[in-house]
UniProtKB/TrEMBL annotation:
The keyword Nuclease belongs to this UniProt entry's keyword annotation: yes
The protein, known as: Endonuclease/exonuclease/phosphatase family protein
Endonuclease/exonuclease/phosphatase domain boundaries: 21-233
Lineage: Bacteria, Bacillati, Actinomycetota, Actinomycetes, Kitasatosporales
An annotated Gene Ontology molecular function: endonuclease activity
Pfam families: Exo_endo_phos
Superkingdom: Bacteria
Keywords: Endonuclease, Hydrolase, Nuclease
Length: 245
């Protein structure tokens, strides 16, 4: 299925068009075949996963997902980050890893960030972070404020994940003043759809630092049956233009 989306790949000036997918996969507890079909149809160069399995064979399950989707593990996953995981095409070069397991508050889930500095082709190196923020408002706002630090001094960075709040909320607005909200800037794809009985929410997003051009961002228009069977969140796919080194 064609997604009517700019292809990834090099540009004549050395910049790189990159497809970034962010996806909360609910620990692969749903239809794994549908999950693989959705991911492969998006043809991502980079995948920011949330709720990668943490407790039961997390390394093996992450490796299974990588094999089935034609990717490799870049960083994160399992207990090391409390779920966030980075996958990428074999052509992605990992320059360094900067995963963080955040301080856990009593009564709340452990949270962490999976971060790697990567380079694709002749692009400038950039930091890529997958996150899954708290459901508790005060803790979540603190976590929003930590995210820009995951750029680890790089001029360019991408932050993607499940933010557990919507664009009008304080943390999202705080981050959107510093990073580009891909969907707000270059909306593409299907309208946000909900699982039966649930409200329509925009909790998942791809943010890019100034200097990284957002060409398109949104929900891939894939078969509804697969989207609903694969996980309890919808994937968000963005095409970014990362400048040359």
């Amino acid at each position: 299925m064609s997604l009517d989306l700019p292809t990834s790949g090099p540009e004549p000036d050395g910049a790189e068009r990159v497809r970034v997918l962010t996806y909360n996969i609910r620990s692969q507890r749903d239809d794994r075949a549908a999950l693989v079909r959705v991911i492969r149809a998006c043809e991502p160069d980079l995948i920011c996963v949330q709720e990668s399995p943490r407790y039961w064979r997390p390394e093996g399950q992450a490796a299974w997902l990588a094999r089935r989707t034609g990717t490799v593990i870049l960083s994160g996953g399992g207990r090391a980050t409390a779920g966030p995981l980075l996958l990428g095409r074999p052509r992605v070069q990992v320059l360094s890893r900067h995963d963080v397991l955040l301080r856990k508050r009593r009564g709340l889930y452990a949270r962490g960030f999976a971060t790697a500095v990567v380079r694709i082709g002749r692009s400038a190196p950039f930091a890529l972070t997958s996150c899954h923020l708290s459901t508790e408002a005060a803790e979540r706002f603190e976590q929003f404020q930590l995210l820009p630090g995951q750029a680890v001094g790089r001029a360019h960075s991408v932050i993607a994940g499940d933010f557990n709040e919507e664009p009008q909320a304080p943390g999202w607005r705080w981050l959107a003043e510093r990073y580009q909200d891909g969907y707000a800037l270059a909306r593409w794809g299907a309208d946000y759809i909900a699982r039966p009985g649930n409200p329509i929410q925009r909790l998942d997003a791809v943010f890019a630092s100034p200097g990284v051009a957002v060409l398109a961002c949104g929900i891939p228009p894939l078969p509804r049956a697969d989207l609903l069977a694969a996980a309890d969140h919808l994937p968000v796919l963005a095409v970014l233009r990362v400048p040359a080194a």
